[in-house]
Amino acid sequence: MGEWFRHTIVDTGRLSLFSFFAAMMVGFFGIRFSTRMIRAGVRWWPGNVTPGGLHIHHAVFGIGLMLIGGITGFAIDPDLTGWRSVAAAVFGLGSALVLDEFALILRLRDVYWSREGRESVTAVFVACAVTGLLVLGVLPENITELVRADDRGGLAGWAAGIALAAFNLGLAVLTVLKGKLWTGLIGLFFPILLYVGVIRLARPKSPWARWRYHRPGERPARKLARAQRREERFHQPVARLGDRLSNLIAGRPDQA
User: What is the share, in percent, of the chain residues with pLDDT greater than 90?
Assistant: First the structure.
């Protein structure tokens, strides 16, 4: 394991990224454990920070840690790998605290324990998945194409690289508009998923479905009906499994 870590992470210059990733994971699980203890009313747990009656959300501390880690990371000599990794870890810890309250920031109201609050968990999962792939050395195809264009050199090579990168990015956007967030994001790393996501029907509540399927006419009605059948048959069982996993990690949301 130590040899793998040295060859895969240290020798490739990804130690700072790994530190960010590990700290973000630890920070998320740590803050979720803390909030669940507070919610359960455990007496010996420190509880909320409420100086003078003002409740301070942990995203505030996260922003502070991100500023400290980010500014320190820019200021440190690039050759000081160890200290840059420490700064990256501080930034990752702050990112976890901010992302854990992503839904509150998005909606500008306290929805932490509501169904809408699950958007925070999704944001953390997305950040961890993307960062984990980067730690393992898997780059988005868009970046890979630009690197190849730089290696080939010349105006034609750059034009081809930029065009292909823009094409893949457009497919990813379209896939997300069809309600397939994970397919669009992971498809940036494995483009074959983007082609599948673009070809298949959109999910019935996605922006694409609202634009294309919720219209008068027999053909849009047939597509909407097929999308709803697929949603019930395939997506809803996966969504229920995801809900159980989120409940296990982040706690069950309040009932409306």
Answer: 55
E strands, 103-238, where? none
For residues 89 and 70, is the Cβ–Cβ distance under 8 A?
no
First to last CA, the chain: 47
d(CA 12, CA 176): 32
* Residue 205 domain-assigned (yes or no): no
Tokens linked to 27:
């920070």
pLDDT digits (tens, 9 = 90+) for 124-160: 999 999 999 999 988 887 777 666 666 666 677 677 7
| DSSP SS3 for 191 | coil
Domain total for the chain?
A: 3
Domain that holds residue 32: 2-135
Helix (H, G, I), strand (E, B) or coil at 15: helix
Length of the chain: 256
State the pTM of this model: 0.85
At which of 176, 200, 224 does a domain end?
A: 200
